[in-house]
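User: I'm designing a mutation panel for 23S rRNA (Guanosine(2251)-2'-O)-methyltransferase RlmB and want to avoid disrupting the core. Could you give me a predicted structure to guide residue selection? Please restate the sequence first so the numbering is unambiguous.

Assistant: Good idea. Sequence first, for numbering, then the predicted structure tokens:
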Amino acid sequence: MQNKPRKVKTSNEPNRGQPVKIQGKRIITNPTRNPRKIDSNPVSVANPTRNPRKIDSNPTRNPRKIDSNPISGNSRQRNSNFSQPSVSTQPIEEDNDLIYGRHPVLSALQNQRNLNRLWITTRLRYDPSFHHFLLQAKENGTVIDEVEPKRLDYLTNGANHQGVAAQIAPYAYIELPDLIEQAKAVTDPVIVVADGITDPHNLGAIIRTAEAIGAQGLVIPQRRASGITSTVMKVAAGALENFAVARVVNLSRALEELKEAGFWIYGTAASGSEPVHTVNFTGPIVLVIGSEGEGLSMLTQRSCDFLVSIPLQGKTPSLNASVAAGMTLYEIYRQRSLNTLHLDKLQKISLKK
């Protein structure tokens, strides 16, 4: 017993079994150990950041936004600064389907595309080429804001907006059977298929070239490929207003459906193919363009009737997808123009004789 004096109770030692003194001791020495006591008295909290329940009760749950506020007032003052942000003051990114520039916006207005909002300068709003279409857009529910050029600079992140920008509604794709029906109304139609084009700039350039050269439509896969975004519309420069695009779930099944409709499938591939200028493009044609990095997938190549390539003389191993599509499309229509009888030229030759 003499070796263990701590186990001997004395009259001066406090009774450790009394719960009242233990509770009072915990409150005085370390008030942060009992979160229920702190929650029950919010006035006595010296450091609210230690209590996660107090932070959750704050409607502004992003602490970085509170720290970035230069006003060092109380928490209610900081919350009032972030509780009602102004949506109109935020710049609109490409993901919000913003198009800008006179030609893309004017093409959208002329074709009565659904526009959610339109920003335009005073000088351009009363321009004869815009004024009539703006009135029609306003009747269709488009909100038109007359703004200064600096406002458009902010909305477009300093891009060349030319005094007008518009927020468009999501693009309305056409069904593949409807695209086939529209295309077959033309003699020897051409439909372009983009196999996994992920760059919206490439897809927009393909659409612009295909529409300009006379193709009837485009088919794109739903997954692992770019859709019709605002960037695609901007690069296409109004071509989408007169060009149909179908989006399919299964590209191989879509190619089989095109075969059954009478189309010949030509795919662009570097290996195992014939030079494009040696191929005789006749009848209804589907031109399949591969992705930027991998080209045509093996499944898509097996669905093609012919594989064609563009002979290259330099050290560059391949071409950009949109460039390859433009060169192949031009070869298709070059051959067809040579086989077309130009009656007006024949009449001039006969008169000279």
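For picking mutation sites, this is relevant: The radius of gyration is 34 Å. The first strand starts at residue 98 and ends at 100.
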